[in-house]
Amino acid sequence: MVEDEMRLFLDEMAGVQPLKNNTTTTISEQKVSTQAQDARRKQLQMSEQLAKLTLDPNLILPVLPDAIVEFKRDGVQEAVFHRLSLGGYPVKHEIDLHTLKATQAREALYQQIQISRERGERSIVVIHGKGAKSKPYPGLMKSFVVTWLQEIEEVLAFHSAQRQHGGTGALYVMLVKSEQKRIETRETNHKGVNVR
């Protein structure tokens, strides 16, 4: 009976060839595919976020060229915000938007915020200029930047810069911690817990 089953099995398997081992190409193809998917996902997220940031000057609140501007989300401590307003946090990057068109400025600002967060940076300087002679009203780029920053979730707070960093033509911008920085902070704060 076992011999009959074996013969039937071998008859059925006649002409079958083993698969070639292509595990290496499959893994590298998956890696390339995953990187491409990540890039497409990031591009889609950026497009969605940029679409939320208006380019219509009629839909933003005009800000005077020399006005001091400030914004903070709920949960930002007063001492932290005060330190930000004094330029008390280290800044590795600044972005100059005042010579760009609104569409270019919007994309450059959003990208710089994302790049800075990925690098673990907590603050940047945004130079928007005063725009005293801009049209259709003075302070147009400044008004756009102030509006956009309030709409970008990764922005915790901003304040007009000190004179040496651009004064009312620039902003100190505080960013939300990246996920990696949150993990590092959690680990640092938990070291020594339950140790006697």
Automatic annotation (TrEMBL):
NCBIfam families recorded: endonuc_SmrA
Residue stretches making up the Smr domain: 95-176
Protein name per its UniProtKB record: DNA mismatch repair protein MutS
Species whose genome carries this gene: Shewanella sairae
Gene3D superfamilies for the chain: 3.30.1370.110
SUPFAM superfamilies: SMR domain-like
Lineage: Bacteria, Pseudomonadati, Pseudomonadota, Gammaproteobacteria, Alteromonadales
